[in-house]
Recover the amino acids of this structure.
């Protein structure tokens, strides 16, 4: 079993279906390849029809929702690491915009000839020290730290800053939940 999960694309839009469509178009992948859509709430929302959103985005896959978009990233990553899925879209639903992250396994990257932007290096529900230990890093190795409430949007911002600054490591945290991202 591979131990890598890659971030292929990250896009934001006021409409969730548009964010998903743009994330897929950004890497020119057929929507039928996406095996799962994981929605995470980053604020208060009325009940949404997730199946309708995925259909509007051109997806033909199951949809699930979890309590936050950072937890949605964790859930999708675990599905990929367990070998159950190869290509998953995570949608962070925020009050002002939705952010879609396209995650992939190494097999999907090779099979579809995709170019990853980053790798999810470690994740932890026990705080930064645990995530750093899992990745074999010290806090001084991390160039970009983002803390807030909107996990998927923070991951997108970390990606953009890593690429802009040509840095290798970024960290996203919400409370004790931490995600380490490595630019490749």
């Amino acid at each position: 079993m591979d131990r890598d999960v890659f971030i292929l694309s990250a896009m934001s839009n006021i409409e969730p279906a548009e964010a998903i469509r743009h994330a897929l178009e950004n890497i020119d992948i057929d929507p039928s390849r996406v095996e799962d859509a994981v929605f995470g709430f980053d604020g208060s929302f009325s009940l949404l029809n997730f199946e309708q959103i995925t259909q509007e985005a051109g997806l033909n896959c199951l949809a699930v929702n979890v309590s936050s978009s950072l937890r949605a990233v964790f859930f999708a990553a675990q599905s990929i690491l367990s070998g159950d899925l190869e290509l998953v879209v995570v949608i962070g639903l925020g009050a002002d915009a939705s952010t879609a992250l396209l995650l992939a396994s190494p097999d999907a990257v090779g099979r579809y000839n995709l170019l990853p932007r980053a790798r999810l290096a470690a994740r932890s529900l026990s705080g930064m020290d645990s995530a750093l230990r899992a990745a074999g890093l010290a806090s001084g190795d991390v160039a970009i730290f983002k803390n807030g409430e909107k996990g998927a949007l923070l991951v997108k911002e970390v990606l953009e800053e890593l690429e802009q600054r040509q840095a290798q490591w970024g960290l996203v945290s919400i409370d004790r939940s931490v995600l380490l991202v490595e630019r490749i």
